[in-house]
Write a structure and sequence with these properties.
The complex is a heterodimer.
Chain A: H1 3-13, H2 35-49, H3 55-59, H4 64-71
Chain B: E1 8-12, H1 17-28, E2 32-37, H2 40-48, E3 56-59, H3 65-79, E4 84-87, H4 102-123, E5 134-139, H5 152-172, E6 177-184, H6 190-197, H7 201-209, H8 218-229, E7 240-243
Parallel strand pairs in B: 1-2, 1-4, 2-3, 4-5, 5-6, 6-7
Helix pairs in contact in B: 1-8, 4-5
Classes of the chains: A mainly alpha, B alpha/beta.
Chain lengths: 78, 250
Amino acid sequence: METSKFLSLLTEYMEIESSNLTVDTELKSLPEFGSLSIMSIIALVDEHFDKTISAKDLGNVVTINDLMSLIGRENFSA
Amino acid sequence: MMDLSQKRILITGASSGIGRACAVAAAAMGATVILTGRNEERLRETLSLLQGEGHFLFTSDVTDMAAFEAQLESCVAQSGPVSGFIHSAGIEMTRPLQTMSAPLYQSVFATNVIAAFEIARLLSKKKYVDPLGASFVFISSVMAVRGQAGKVAYCSSKSALSGGAKAIALELASKKIRVNCVLPAMVETEMAKKMFESLPESSVAEIIKQHPLGLGKPEDVALACIFLLSNGARWITGTELVVDGGYQIA
């Protein structure tokens, strides 16, 4: 998946207002981040990468870059 | 009072969790158990845990009723008519509203709701049902009556199951078939473990705290089902038996 596509999916799933998401954005710094966001990210990864991640795995994620590493770099192109 | 001898009990979702515990408890109370589920190997594991001889199993997809009826028909020909049914097959789904879609709701409802009603429809036919009467038990959930964020599909499916059970109870009363729901709160099963993994640790701790008697064991729910299947519950139909360690009052 292209990184830009991933960023737009995140924007959609987390219902983020701002459109200037980058891979360096810290997820928890977003005003929309809350307990539902974790469920939404898990759903996104399940649906688009066919991969199950746990809330615990997400606990160590700070930036979107970290999230992409958790999903697996091989899944992304520039 | 909880004796189930001379009764044949069909259990869906019998390969794990509450369904498996129901099978073990029903056999211990003297029933002949008919196990069904998707995974033959796991059904055989359940079978190996049952007391007594002469139990049955068949693999099935509860969303394919034509195939299910063919399997049921050949099973009943050997086992004799069905005197009890526990619908324990169920899908859990933790997703916020914004990530839901019609096919996702449909998949949850197909197994949690429609399968229960469709199997009740089949089993209430004269050729399958015990002429002495029968008892159907649907495993609902406290989430049928209490909401939880991220659970729109699951909560609504369990409410639908509880609602339908009451209508079916009225329709089948004249056939001496009772229909009830059991509403467990959080029970330690593989499904619950998977659900906990999708929630932040703080939410998990909070959920556990909401159970004054702690989380339940599958056996705790199974024994409530056994009571509803037994003649001891002969005057109970269309009800919701809450088995929740105090969750609802906390």
